[in-house]
Amino acid sequence: MPVKQPPFTTDKTYFAHDVRNWIAAHPSVPPWTTDQINNTIDTLWFADRQLQIRPQYRAHMQDAANNMNLANLIPGAMAIPQNPYTEGEKNHAKRYRTLPQPAAGVAAPAAPVAQIAPAMALGAITAVGVAPAAPPVASQAAPSAASGLAPSLYWYPFDFHPRLPWDDESDIPELPNFEGVRRPSEAPRECDEFLRSGILRHQEDDADWRGQKVLGFGNFGVAGLWVQLDAQNNVIEQIVAKDCNPWTREKWRDPVHWRDRLPREIANHRRIDRRRSQNSNREMAYRNLVEHRGYRLMMRKRRYRLYLKYYSGGHLEKALQPVFEDWVLGKGQEWDFDDPNCFDDLNQIPEELIWHVFQSLVRACLFLQYGTSDPAVTAPEPDWRPITHADITMGNIFIEPRDPSDDFDLSNVVLADYGESFFPLEIPPRNADEPLYPSDNPVDYVHECSSTRRPYEQHFAREDENGILIPINEKTDVWMIGAVIWRLLSYNTDDRGPVREDLEAEVEVVEVDENGQPTRQLKDVPIKVPISMGDSTDVLTEAAMLPSVSEFFPMAANWTAELKRLVRECLNYGPGDRLTLHQLNEDIEAHLASNPVLQEGPELLDTAGERMEGIE
């Protein structure tokens, strides 16, 4: 008789399958009888007042996006006892809703220490094979096994890693070595090697897929474009395969880099996928988050592969490169600020494009923080954990040229690369009179260096005036959004990040006197100082950033005052002085509503795809 497969009609059926699978994977001597297995299942299920496992299985059963899979919450939700329960112990649990007292030397199963998150649904896959859904786990380590077994700390794989068996990796070659190479065109052999490596799972047919080009590589690994061909060699599908080889052995076995038994980047994609599949209205924010198509996890090689939608417009840095190059070449000119046409011969960024990018990034981050971009929702959705992106740069913002057949008037701006994104781990509850428990945020996510393209709270773990560590959160993403928009306003090309313009330094200046003789004297001259260095922590004013007549950024006079104000309020040194995402979204929408001309389609994005042949 065939075994019935999920979805099941009762939550207990999911639980029973989980327990039976665990017992089968951990055989005892002598083996348990069918009655012993059934008594154990019933005893654990009836002891719901103590173990509190029913809500987790009920949530899984009701999760239409994922209930076609087993819940796989054992042993995460609880530990299975070393010895089976008896008929009498089952009756005790049924009557009192608690476990019977264990016999001497035999421990009862441990109650769960944390609520288990419902399983995440995998992103839609049409033609690409990907790894099966991995079971979710709580943020903390699962309870240790019952008495008689060594604590789970001494078991391998670690309890935050996927359970065995792991997928076969025999078809996966090592990644090509791009060390010392600046662009794909300089390494044709390595690129060809990667594109011939295949993209599907072991023994799955990928004969109709072709590696077309390498899109980029770096410390993260390498990404390439694959196309699917029909019988006439017409392209019917495109997909990006991003092979991530980001971690040392030490990081791979560090639980802070994992969520839901998956690398953080994959886990966050899957959480977004689940919200995407549940939302029938396809709210605007989904368009601003990179579309995940699946993943492959290679545990033995300490690698993973992401399958992502291909955005033919490339990234924002590359799309706007002609503008930045023009202004770099134009540096040193004597600008006539009284002439309104003095910049006409240079490439310029339309202000409506900047507002479009601004609004798109805010919507994307609203969704990451709250599970929706609905401005009426001011607290995270009940089943949502706030995600901080933590790495918003122009290189991580992609362009999807407008499709004339869709309902949208503008090209799409997409936030990608969740390699640094995270949601904090749970902290055990405490009494009000107890000291604060330590948190993983920010100590496990700071960079331990002063990179001025990032806000200061990402440099090192720092305390506020009350001695409390400053977390990395939505205010961090607000700062990074502001940094992107500041670059679009300043046409700045270096990697130092946003700067203040209201500070001076005493320098030696050589001047020629009336007799033609050089004289040396000390003078205070304006200087650019990165905001996140903290030389001044004052709130940014017009004089401090992008004044109408700027010593360093001549285009500052061309932008509207409201746009520059919002950028300043994103970039303040202290997180408490920055706008929230909701405030920022409200101000942007209000300004666009009163200036409808700014919502017209910016041509620079619409033509970006035509100018982009790839990330070279």
Automatic annotation (TrEMBL):
PROSITE patterns noted in UniProt: PROTEIN_KINASE_DOM
Domain of life: Eukaryota
InterPro entries noted in UniProt: Kinase-like_dom_sf (IPR011009), Prot_kinase_dom (IPR000719), TF_kinase-domain_protein (IPR053083)
Molecular function GO labels: ATP binding; protein kinase activity
Residues annotated as domain Protein kinase: 209-598
PANTHER family: SI:DKEY-192D15.2-RELATED (PTHR44305), TYROSINE-PROTEIN KINASE C03B1.5-RELATED (PTHR44305:SF24)
Name of the protein described by the UniProt record: Protein kinase domain-containing protein
Organism for this UniProt entry: Curvularia kusanoi (Cochliobolus kusanoi)
